[in-house]
Amino acid sequence: MLLAAGGGRRLGGRPKALLEYGGRPLVEHAVAALRAGGCARVYVVLGAAATAVRERADLAGCVIVENPAWATGMGSSLRAGLASLEDVGAGAALVCLVDQPGIGAAAVARLHAAYRGPGTLAAAGYAGRRGHPVLFGAAHWAGVAAGAAGDQGARSYLAMHAGGLALVECGDIAEPHDIDTPDDLWRLGGG
Q1: Is 19 helix (H, G, I), strand (E, B) or coil?
Q2: Residues forming beta bridges with residue 129, ordered by sequence position
């Protein structure tokens, strides 16, 4: 699942999904990483500029989930994405953020390989610190959704369940930096 609904408030209102990376919208890069990392079905949660993202990005084969409450923060996008999975028989959701171009297929594949069943709870680690992507087994979805508010996403849920969280080191294959402000745009190679 790719969370790509943000409006880029700190980027002057430039939706992150449409930032250019490698000549294409950032959302396409993230979708390709999820697919190449082993995710058979890719759900993309859109919000800000959803129509423009649909028009400009090639999201063929993706399940598009629109989050009308995107402006309230990432928590609403996580809830919308998890709700869209309730009746599809998925055992887990591997969640990535659109604004982290340094996380590619190799990190996704490592998290994907951590799946052991619906009770799985795993996150990428960077020098021992929790980061993205995160893998939520289906048994965790209700709890994650209940605690997802504002821009916190699953942070509080993961903190409460730290003892059962598998940290999968990805620092050797990925960079977890966010594209949040104009000062971060250099990470896109001129974005």
Answers
A1: coil
A2: 126
**Tens digits of residue pLDDT in 154-178:** 999 999 999 999 999 999 999 999 9
Distances in whole angstroms, Cα of residue 59 to Cα of each of 16, 52, 118? 15, 12, 27
Q: From the CB of residue 147, how many other CB atoms can be counted at a distance below 10 Å?
A: 19
Q: How far apart (Å, rounded) are the C-alpha atoms in residues 180 and 92?
A: 28
What is the rounded average pLDDT of the residues 125-139?
A: 97
How large is the average pLDDT for residues 58-70?
Answer: 97
Please write the tens of the pLDDT for every residue from 9-62. 888 778 999 999 888 999 999 999 999 999 999 999 999 999 999 999 999 999
Q: Kindly state the tokens that stand for 95.
A: 């969640």
- 3-class secondary structure for 44-67? EEEECEHHHHHHHCCCCCCEEEEC
User: DSSP labels for 116-174?
Assistant: -STT-EEEEEETTEEEEEEEEEGGGHHHHHHH--TT-TTHHHHHHTGGGPEEEE-TTT-
- What pairs with residue 130 in β-bridges? 125
Reduce the DSSP state of residue 21 to 3 states and report it: strand
With contact defined as beta carbons under 8 Å apart, do 1 and 144 qualify? no
Q: What six digits make up the tokens of 101?
A: 């171009």
H/E run at residue 109: helix 105-113
